[in-house]
Amino acid sequence: MQYERTYHSPIGPLYLRCSDTHIVELSFHGEASEVEAHHHLLDLAHLQLDEYFAGSRKAFTLPLLIGGTPFQKKVYEALLSIEYGQTASYEEIAMRIGNPKACRAVGMANNRNRLALLIPCHRVVGKHGSLVGYEGGLEKKAWLLDFERRHRSS
């Protein structure tokens, strides 16, 4: 069974979906049904998102169903190692996963990340720190990076 809910964040609505055991999606696109699902994982995700947007949560501790190809899963694991308030380039991620020529493929994996914020693809930037590509839009990426930098030491 799947459960869904819309979370209203400072950067707009976020679509949350879970199974009985894992969070399976957090995205900027989609819409939950009119009747909000009640499930303990959605409640926990809602609480952790409240804490994140209050500036007090630096890492999520939700059970995630990380889908994708073996390559995408390597990329997502590398993204999880980028600390709150920090960034890494596509090239750095490619090097972390042992495939230094895979910068473009890292970008494509980021694009397919179905767990925005939870797997922090917003922390991946261009080679010289430029803001490039984000499923939620560059204005949301800039907001998130600025927000994390401001709350990093709090």
TrEMBL record:
<dbReference type="InterPro" id="IPR008332">
    <property type="entry name" value="MethylG_MeTrfase_N"/>
</dbReference>
<keyword id="KW-0963">Cytoplasm</keyword>
<dbReference type="InterPro" id="IPR001497">
    <property type="entry name" value="MethylDNA_cys_MeTrfase_AS"/>
</dbReference>
<dbReference type="InterPro" id="IPR036631">
    <property type="entry name" value="MGMT_N_sf"/>
</dbReference>
<keyword id="KW-0234">DNA repair</keyword>
<feature type="domain" description="Methylated-DNA-[protein]-cysteine S-methyltransferase DNA binding">
    <location>
        <begin position="70"/>
        <end position="149"/>
    </location>
</feature>
<feature type="domain" description="Methylguanine DNA methyltransferase ribonuclease-like">
    <location>
        <begin position="3"/>
        <end position="65"/>
    </location>
</feature>
<protein>
    <recommendedName>
        <fullName>Methylated-DNA--protein-cysteine methyltransferase</fullName>
        <ecNumber>2.1.1.63</ecNumber>
    </recommendedName>
</protein>
<dbReference type="InterPro" id="IPR023546">
    <property type="entry name" value="MGMT"/>
</dbReference>
<dbReference type="GO" id="GO:0003908">
    <property type="term" value="F:methylated-DNA-[protein]-cysteine S-methyltransferase activity"/>
</dbReference>
<dbReference type="InterPro" id="IPR014048">
    <property type="entry name" value="MethylDNA_cys_MeTrfase_DNA-bd"/>
</dbReference>
<dbReference type="Pfam" id="PF02870">
    <property type="entry name" value="Methyltransf_1N"/>
</dbReference>
<comment type="similarity">
    <text>Belongs to the MGMT family.</text>
</comment>
<keyword id="KW-0489">Methyltransferase</keyword>
<feature type="active site" description="Nucleophile; methyl group acceptor">
    <location>
        <position position="121"/>
    </location>
</feature>
<dbReference type="Pfam" id="PF01035">
    <property type="entry name" value="DNA_binding_1"/>
</dbReference>
<keyword id="KW-0227">DNA damage</keyword>
<dbReference type="InterPro" id="IPR036388">
    <property type="entry name" value="WH-like_DNA-bd_sf"/>
</dbReference>
<keyword id="KW-0808">Transferase</keyword>
<dbReference type="InterPro" id="IPR036217">
    <property type="entry name" value="MethylDNA_cys_MeTrfase_DNAb"/>
</dbReference>
<comment type="function">
    <text>Involved in the cellular defense against the biological effects of O6-methylguanine (O6-MeG) and O4-methylthymine (O4-MeT) in DNA. Repairs the methylated nucleobase in DNA by stoichiometrically transferring the methyl group to a cysteine residue in the enzyme. This is a suicide reaction: the enzyme is irreversibly inactivated.</text>
</comment>
<dbReference type="GO" id="GO:0032259">
    <property type="term" value="P:methylation"/>
</dbReference>
